Automatic annotation (TrEMBL):
This protein's record includes keyword Transferase: yes
Catalyzed reactions: [ThiI sulfur-carrier protein]-S-sulfanyl-L-cysteine + a uridine in tRNA + 2 reduced [2Fe-2S]-[ferredoxin] + ATP + H(+) = [ThiI sulfur-carrier protein]-L-cysteine + a 4-thiouridine in tRNA + 2 oxidized [2Fe-2S]-[ferredoxin] + AMP + diphosphate; [ThiS sulfur-carrier protein]-C-terminal Gly-Gly-AMP + S-sulfanyl-L-cysteinyl-[cysteine desulfurase] + AH2 = [ThiS sulfur-carrier protein]-C-terminal-Gly-aminoethanethioate + L-cysteinyl-[cysteine desulfurase] + A + AMP + 2 H(+)
Localization annotation: Cytoplasm
Annotated EC: 2.8.1.4
Cited NCBIfam families: tRNA uracil 4-sulfurtransferase ThiI (TIGR00342)
Source species: Paenibacillus agaridevorans
Family matches, as HAMAP family: ThiI
Pfam family, one: ThiI
Name the UniProt record assigns to this protein: Probable tRNA sulfurtransferase
Function: Catalyzes the ATP-dependent transfer of a sulfur to tRNA to produce 4-thiouridine in position 8 of tRNAs, which functions as a near-UV photosensor. Also catalyzes the transfer of sulfur to the sulfur carrier protein ThiS, forming ThiS-thiocarboxylate. This is a step in the synthesis of thiazole, in the thiamine biosynthesis pathway. The sulfur is donated as persulfide by IscS.
Length: 394
């Protein structure tokens, strides 16, 4: 991000930070190049950090003590920060950055002036410039100096919605909600599309998908559309085609055709799926090739190179795992053949589709009868356990 578009991203980010913290009274905000400041107005920092670290577009956050830009004030703020550390470290170093050139001491001098002050107060402590347990950072600017030592990794990526819109194929499984989260993390606004085969699939299966989509809205902080596509007629027709081993291939291609139509009307420029290479028969290279040719839109597969356990770890972190493992049948599991093809042939598949009179009419009908619901974030309490103790997202 360079030049003027950087400012647009940062403005968007600031607005999303404000939205996420709208419940905190009297909090004030400002931004400088590449950095956002939140003045807490007395609110404890832990729950605020817990919420902010989930926002897309933030690389990291730090609780900082701000003070006047004077030597004694800075030394005293440094002491406060050191004293606030739970367990006293054995080694540390001071890293001063002097953005305000009018400050009377150089950053090199300041490293010593602050370091010596701390060492006098903590006789057990020693300096280690290479691999210190604690790096005390001092950022001297004209209007204030910021002192901090914690750097909490945040979700990273781009601010939500800064990279356009895509449709997420959302099943009730573990993978697609994670794929959706990863797409959103990269700045894609997402609308979800779910195919159901009511009455073969239950009302609970639908509720489960609604719940998963709603969970995703928590991370964007804004509403999300969920398109519920009636897939029963197409599925039963394909199931009767006498090509058991190709049913999944045919079903997926029909799904993509319908999704492409929905994309046209909703202005989406891509389709996100939860596929992961080799996980099931429909996710071999050959299968994905034949399936993918049913659409012109780019297929975005964030999980393609991930292992199941890595996907599950993220599902835990984003709070979708518990819902995903509820036992309700998905429309695909229901019609799962005993030996699905891992190596379908495009021409054979196209011939079968051409022989199924009425497939395009059925696709039209499914598009027309798609129900759209809008889901709003039902802000669960921010996880407020000390966020600095959690691992990075990746
Ligand atoms: P998931 O855990 O997301 O269900 P999976 O490993 O079970 O994925 P499949 O069931 O083969 O794999 O589905 C592959 C992808 O196709 C899903 O990740 C999802 O994006 C899409 N998909 C499958 N079933 C549906 C459905 N009923 N509605 C919408 N999308 C679906
Ligand atoms: Mg599935």
């Amino acid at each position: 991000m360079k030049g003027r578009n950087r400012n647009q991203f940062e403005k968007k980010m600031l607005q999303q930070v404000k939205n996420a913290l709208s419940g905190y009274e009297g909090v004030t905000y400002w931004k400088t190049y590449g950095r956002l400041y939140v003045k807490l107005n007395g609110h404890p920092w832990e729950p605020v950090a817990g919420r902010l670290k989930e926002l897309f577009g933030l690389v990291s956050l730090s609780p900082v003590r701000s003070t006047e830009s004077g030597l004694e004030e800075i030394r005293s703020a440094a002491m406060t920060v050191m004293n606030a550390l739970g367990k006293p470290p054995k080694t540390f170093k001071v890293s001063v950055k002097r953005a305000w050139k009018g400050f009377p001491h150089s950053s090199h001098e300041m490293n010593h002036l602050v370091g010596a002050h701390i060492l006098r107060a903590f006789p057990e402590l020693s300096v280690d410039v290479r691999n210190p347990e604690v790096e005390l950072k001092v950022d001297i600017q004209e209007e204030a100096t910021y002192v901090f030592c914690e750097v909490i990794p945040a979700a990273g990526g781009f601010p939500f919605g800064s990279n356009g819109k895509a449709l997420l194929l959302l099943s009730g499984g573990i993978d697609s909600p994670v794929a959706g989260w990863m797409a959103m993390r990269k700045g894609l606004e997402v609308e979800a599309v779910h195919f159901h085969s009511y009455p073969y699939t239950s009302e609970q299966a639908k509720d489960k998908v609604v719940e998963l989509a709603r969970r995703l809205t928590y991370f964007s902080g804004v509403s999300m559309k969920l398109h519920l596509v009636p897939f029963t007629e197409i599925q039963t027709t394909l199931a009767q085609s006498g090509q058991e081993h190709l049913i999944i291939t045919l079903m997926r291609r029909a799904m993509l055709r319908i999704t492409e139509r929905i994309a046209e009307s909703s202005g989406a420029g891509g389709i996100v799926t939860g596929e992961s290479l080799g996980q099931v028969a429909s996710q071999t290279l050959a299968s994905m090739n034949v399936i993918g040719r049913a659409t012109q839109l780019p297929l975005i597969k964030p999980l393609i190179m991930m292992d199941k356990q890595e996907i599950i770890n993220i599902a835990y972190r984003i709070g979708t795992y518990e819902t995903s493992i509820l036992p309700y049948e998905d429309c695909c599991t229901l019609f799962l053949p005993k030996s699905p093809s891992t190596n379908p042939n495009l021409r054979v598949v196209e011939r079968i589709e051409a022989g199924l009179g009425g497939l395009s009419d059925m696709i039209e009908t499914a598009v027309r009868d798609t129900e759209v619901i809008k889901l709003y974030p039902n802000a669960p309490a921010a996880k407020s356990d000390n966020p600095s103790q959690e691992d990075a997202w990746f």
